[in-house]
Specification:
There is one protein chain. The chain is α/β, with parallel strands linked by helices. Helix content is 45%, strand content 19%. It has a five-stranded parallel beta sheet, sandwiched between helices. α1 links the parallel β1 and β2. The protein starts with 6 loop residues before the first strand and ends with a helix.
């Protein structure tokens, strides 16, 4: 029996990081789409549904906080895993209020660990 292929949207403006995440998720059987800022992500989300969104916070055009606000307004329930260099408690609190599922500090986690966390979440 073929395993269901999960769809993931990676929203990351640092292209080397976006590519590394995409390659690791694809290697683990995910169908991956990249967006390089929040506006592009919103446009993609109007056309397609995803099982998970992995996103950065600091991006051009529309940052991750604004993207989370927009997702909340449109009642999009796609689980969001935030991947950032920001580590203030108030950032974590605001993201939790906006509905972020998980919050990772880039310097404290490997790409493999991110993929493992998303897989564990989807296996529930």
């Amino acid at each position: 029996m073929k395993k269901t292929q999960h769809k993931i949207l990676i929203v990351e403006d640092e292209k080397p990081m976006a590519k590394a995440l995409a390659l690791k998720f694809e290697h683990n059987g995910f169908d991956v789409k990249n967006a390089y800022d929040g506006r592009e992500a919103l446009s993609i989300l109007k056309e397609e549904k995803f099982d998970v969104i992995v996103m950065d916070l600091i991006m051009p055009h529309m940052d991750g906080f604004k993207l989370m606000e927009e997702l909340k307004k449109t009642k999009d329930k796609t689980p969001v895993f935030v991947l950032t260099n920001l580590s203030q408690d108030e950032d974590k609190k605001k993201l939790a209020e906006l509905g972020a599922h998980e919050f990772f500090i880039k310097s404290n986690i490997s790409i493999k660990q991110i993929v493992d966390e998303v897989e564990r979440f989807l296996a529930k």
